[in-house]
Write a structure and sequence with these properties.
The protein is α+β, with helices and mostly antiparallel strands. The protein has one domain: Endonuclease, Chain A (3-Layer(aba) Sandwich). It has six helices and four strands, in the order αααβββααβα. A four-stranded mixed sheet has the order 1-2-3-4, sandwiched between helices. Strand 2 and strand 3 form a beta hairpin. Helix 3 packs across helix 6. The chain is elongated.
């Protein structure tokens, strides 16, 4: 019997197209493993907020027609919570620019930061409270801030006679 030829490992056989952000097969594998939602910091925060008795939407668009999603949304009180990754959102404390393809990454991270500011402004204009936390902040402190903000906005709604 003849043995089937082995297919090359797709990750190792892969080569980056000209101008690609993925400078190597290893870099590509690493980046493909990054999660857009349900990251460990998000899960820790959500667990604590849920344990405090609050309910929320996950990975939801706060405003109709908005392409961006918040990590946690409390619609009745208009609170949007974002847990920003230090790399993707340019944390001043922890962001280390990649050595490969630095121009691409400078523009990419700068664009993310601009989009964050635009999102914050758009939500604030619609009377939303935006809470942003870095992934390195302790989940307990973040949860305390979320619970306090939601409770305060609920109390304000009740004082105004809103449901």
């Amino acid at each position: 019997m003849s043995e089937e030829p082995k297919a090359p490992d797709s990750a190792e056989a892969w080569t980056a197209p000209k101008g690609s952000w993925a400078s190597s097969a290893a870099n590509r594998r690493s980046m493909l493993g990054n999660r857009a939602r349900d990251t460990a910091p998000e899960l820790a925060l959500r667990s604590l907020v849920h344990a405090a008795g609050l309910r929320y939407r996950v990975a939801a668009k706060p405003l109709a027609g908005m392409r961006r999603t918040a990590d946690m949304v409390f619609r009745p009180v208009r609170v949007a919570v974002f847990v920003d990754g230090c790399f993707w959102h340019g944390c001043e404390q922890h962001f280390v620019p990649p050595k490969t393809n630095p121009d691409y990454w400078r523009e990419k991270i700068g664009g993310n930061m601009r989009r964050d500011r635009e999102t914050d402004a758009r939500l604030a204009d619609a009377d939303w409270l935006v809470l942003r936390f870095w992934e390195h902040q302790p989940a307990g402190e973040c949860a305390t801030a979320v619970v306090a903000a939601v409770s305060e906005r609920r109390a304000a709604r009740e004082r105004r006679g809103e449901q």
